[in-house]
Design a protein that fits this description.
This protein is of the alpha+beta class. The protein contains two helices and five strands, in the order E-E-H-E-E-H-E.
């Protein structure tokens, strides 16, 4: 175990890059969408950033939306 002043880092409890990537939403095609430009704004996680899925999500969660940005 390394000690940095009073901070102790236990190497057994450090997450690996693969675990962090999966936790962030990687490998499964998931993402995060922001619906609405001039109308109502809605944000949330989404399974896929393809146009059909984004339109469906925004129509259900944010009626009256005018634009969307999906990252993921």
């Amino acid at each position: 175990m390394k000690k940095i002043n009073k901070l102790r880092i236990n190497p057994d409890r450090i997450m690996k890059n693969e675990e962090l990537f999966t936790l962030r939403g990687g490998y499964d095609g998931g993402g995060y969408v922001n619906c609405g430009e001039s109308g109502p704004h809605c944000r949330g996680p989404i399974n896929s950033c393809d146009d059909e899925t984004v339109r469906l999500y925004c129509n259900i969660m944010c009626p009256g939306w005018s634009g969307a940005v999906c990252v993921g």
